[in-house]
Amino acid sequence: MNELYFLFNILISLLLILISFRMGKYYLFGCFLTMYIVTDLVATKVASIFGYNFSMGAIFFAALFLATDLLSEHYGKKEAIKVINLGLVSILSFLVLSQSSLLILPIDSSLSIHTSLQIIFSSFSRITIASLLAYSVGNYSDIFIFDLIDKKFTGKKWLWLRNNGSTFCSQFLNTLTFFPIAFYGTMPKSLLLEIAIVGHCVKLTVAILDTPFVYFSYYFLPKELKDKKVN
After folding, report:
1. Domains of the chain
2. pTM confidence score
3. What is the DSSP string of 21-83?
């Protein structure tokens, strides 16, 4: 059953990004920032699919690359970089606010909720540091590789190549950065290696599945892009 829900989570995350894109650039920004925070919150949840363990955050983090690729493809590199910068501000703000909220002691009836938040936010701090580094390495490299392939090799042809080429390279860099920092010392090394490898495979799976969504985006252009083409 996990495998079915795994595919559902991939498809729903990609659909949300495509729908947000259809509504306009700033809606896509909002979807990106929300999904990034959710990625960090669920990163410590380890699940099993097809007999292998993986971090839940791998699904949603991989979907973020569809958003940056759509921005690079339709709005240009500057707008893609802008949403990455907004993501950094968003997650840092969330980290500060989540930690400061724990300083206020709860009433007795809310103690269990406070304890649960302590557990979540304590692990979130380390995850956030790892995520910030991996996020920066992965997303900035994705944008620059996408732009490089576009300008130097493919032009507006072979959309699948710049989409998958940029994502495959950047996801590899992201995996190398994120998993050792986020989980080293918190679990057996064999499990860490397994969730890193499987997590990377999950990201590549999402990258392959998001390719049709990049092509579909040309049929779901927001009004602002349609008006720009007319003018």
Report:
1. 2-230 (1.10.1760)
2. 0.80
3. HHH-HHHHHHHHHHHHHHHHHHTT-EEEETTEEEETHHHHHHHHHHHHHHHHHHT-HHHHHHH
